[in-house]
Amino acid sequence: MPYVLPLTHPVLETVGVTVRLSGLTILDDVSIGVPRGSVTGLIGPNGAGKTTVFNVMTGFLAPDEGMVRYEGRRLKHVRTHRLTSMGIARTLQGVGLFPALTVEENVMLGGSSHVRSGIVADALAMPWADAGQRRLRERAREVMEEFGVLEDAQRRPSELPYPVQKRVALARALVSDPKVILLDEPAGGIDSGDMADLARIISSWVPQRTVLLVEHHMELVMNVCDLIWVLDAGKVIAGGSPELVRNDPAVIAAYLGEEDAH
Ligand SMILES: Nc1ncnc2c1ncn2[C@@H]1O[C@H](COP(=O)(O)OP(=O)(O)OP(=O)(O)O)[C@@H](O)[C@H]1O
Ligand SMILES: [Mg+2]
User: Fold this and answer.
1) Beta carbon of 251 within 6 Å of any ligand 1 atom
2) Ligand 1 proximity of 102 Cβ (cutoff 6 Å)
3) In Å, how far are 50, 213, 231, 234, 235 from 250, measured between CA atoms?
4) pLDDT at residue 261 above 50?
């Protein structure tokens, strides 16, 4: 039987999602919910399927079985560029910034519903001067200030230290003022000082926003999450409070030998 934990009114959920790629079952009957106004964690060893869950939830990948529900409605064939207008934003594993664009342009892209996945040329050709773009630029400056990257607005991502690039990626996700934010390993490659800042930032978003956090740093996950789901080899093996999950024998067994788990 799959692991199922009934939740009242999750804002975003997968219902019995199975994904098969290249003949392998990557996700197996995964039902996880993200309660409104919560920070929900999604953890599991490398290759467990966490990023694949994000890809399904954001419509990058259609499940072979099951479905995604957002605000109680089935999400079908979500176009990536529509996510922004639906109130969903995500950060990509790593940094996922466009190297040829400035920090400011990268941040502005997060607020543009015109941007289709991968078509940077369209974005570059956008008339930045019209009223909508001016508002977007103002909003971009606001979030760049909030994330301490305003002074780097005209730099390219590669000129900046990695932790600063990660903050630019967060600013890009926040520029559209999303209701739901999916973060894929936001603490990857950053030190403990930056991690404490990140914990404060994430905690400050709720309950106005809802966060789904994929992260290997257990301390961060245990500190900021209200609810944690655990995936192992494509299956949900546990779900519950940080306390419950931390002491779950199946979770401990799944993490044995995991170098990245802290
Ligand atoms: N396009 C694909 N074709 C075949 N297998 C894939 C494909 N994409 C991902 N996989 C496999 O699916 C599994 C889950 O990958 P996924 O990236 O979702 O894991 P993850 O939990 O995010 O891992 P990590 O912690 O390393 O980021 C892995 O075994 C991966 O090799
Ligand atoms: Mg991943």
Assistant:
1) no
2) no
3) 17, 21, 11, 14, 12
4) no
- Between 130-134, 167-171, 183-187, the lowest mean confidence (pLDDT) is in 130-134
**Which domains are present in the chain?**
1-87+179-262 (3.40.50.300), 91-177 (3.40.50.300)
pLDDT, tens digit (0-9, with 9 covering 90-100), for 130-148 = 667 788 899 999 999 999 9
List Cβ neighbours of 46 (8 Å cut-off, separation of 6 or more). Answer: 258, 260
Q: Where are the alpha helices (DSSP H) in 206-241?
A: 218-224
Instruction: Find how far residue 152's CA is from the centre of its chain.
Output: 23
Angle separating helix axes 162-174 and 131-146, nearest 10 degrees: 130
What percent of the chain stands above pLDDT 90?
69
Protein residue whose Cα sits closest to atom 27 of ligand 1: 46
pTM: 0.89
The reply to whether ligand 1 has any atom less than 6 angstroms from the CB of 24 is yes
Question: pLDDT tens digit string along 5-61?
Answer: 767 779 999 999 999 999 999 999 999 999 999 999 999 999 999 999 999 999 889
As a dihedral over the C-alpha atoms of residue 147, residue 153, residue 155, residue 161, rounded to 10 degrees, the angle is -10
**Residue closest by Cα to atom 25 of ligand 1:** 46
Distance 26 CA to ligand 1 centre (A): 7
8-state DSSP, 210: E
